[in-house]
Amino acid sequence: MTDLSTEVAALPDKSLLVMDDDAPLRTRLGRALEQRGFEPTLVGSVSEAITAVKSSPPAFAVLDMRLDDGNGLRVVEAVRDARPDARIIMLTGYGNIATAVQAVKAGAVDYLSKPADADDVVRALLARGDAPPPPPDNPMSADRVRWEHIQRVYELCNHNVSETARRLNMHRRTLQRILAKRAPR
């Protein structure tokens, strides 16, 4: 953390917009990034984010892809219009190639799946040039990624096991067994 904090301390503008509709995640990430030297503004919706960008365009942004009131790509465009040199990272619980391509085309410099470690976010924000940031030190296991995806779809289906199983193309009983287990490491 000290190397990253030193790099952040050397920045002329440490303003950072953090947008996520998950309040506990937003607060934890905001605190962690503040401890590393950024000056975060925390918002929970697309409309709040656009208002914040208009009043004070940030040098950095960490944005959720999907929110209740819209898509994070709208905020990427607003940040790009207000401050073309801003470094934008997209976070999402829906890690897939199509949305990653959309985010990068819109102007994001990187795309990370939730839950993202604060150090990984800082590395992505500070990465320069075309070189991607180094891979995370402790990436999630494939089992954990699968479990996170199933949990997210289950939430989106309002905890309806049958609908979740249908959308995941999975047998209902198999899904019930997975949901009954603890999260893998």
Automatic annotation (TrEMBL):
Pfam families listed in its UniProt record: HTH_8, Response_reg
UniProt keyword terms in alphabetical order: DNA-binding, Phosphoprotein, Transcription, Transcription regulation, Two-component regulatory system
Gene Ontology biological-process annotations: regulation of DNA-templated transcription
4-aspartylphosphate modified-residue sites: D64
Domain Response regulatory: 15-129
CDD domains cross-referenced by the UniProt entry: REC_RegA-like
GO molecular function, one term: phosphorelay response regulator activity
GO cellular component labels: cytosol; protein-DNA complex
InterPro entries documented for this protein: ActR_PrrA_rreg (IPR047772), CheY-like_superfamily (IPR011006), HTH_Fis (IPR002197), Sig_transdc_resp-reg_receiver (IPR001789), WalR-like (IPR039420)
Source domain of life: Bacteria
Name of the protein: Two-component system response regulator
